[in-house]
Amino acid sequence: MKKSEFFKIHLTYQIRFFVLKLIRIYQATLSHDHGPRAGQSLYGCRYYPSCSEYSYQAIEKYGLIKGGLKAIWRILRCNPFSKGGNDPLK
User: What's the CA dihedral at 86, 82, 36, 62 to 10 degrees?
Assistant: First the structure.
């Protein structure tokens, strides 16, 4: 493996790690389902797992691009007209 390829792969993992940390920080501070505000929302999350947990799992499993697209699609599906329910990552 060339040195430039190594740094490219290493940078990709660093960015993924950073995004995953941001999701965990969001869950610990702002999320109505995970953090100190858990249970304070009138409606709660429509899906299980929550959108932030689904996003974390998708990015961890599929990487930043494909996992990020799966996360965005899930967030777009979460709306008042959706019935929600159990929607595990496939």
Answer: 60
Q: How many structural domains is the chain composed of? A: 1
Give the pLDDT confidence of 19-71 residue by residue, as tens digits. Answer: 999 999 999 998 877 767 666 666 677 889 999 999 999 999 999 999 999 99
Enter the pTM of the model.
0.84
List own/partner pairs for 57-64 with CB under 8 A and 24 or more apart.
57/89, 58/89, 59/16, 59/19, 59/20, 59/23, 60/16, 60/20, 61/89, 63/12, 63/16, 64/12, 64/15, 64/16, 64/19
35 three-class SS: coil
Q: Is the dihedral of CA 43, 78, 56, 13 positive or negative?
A: negative
Range of the domain at 19: 3-86
For residues 49 and 6, the model is more confident at 49
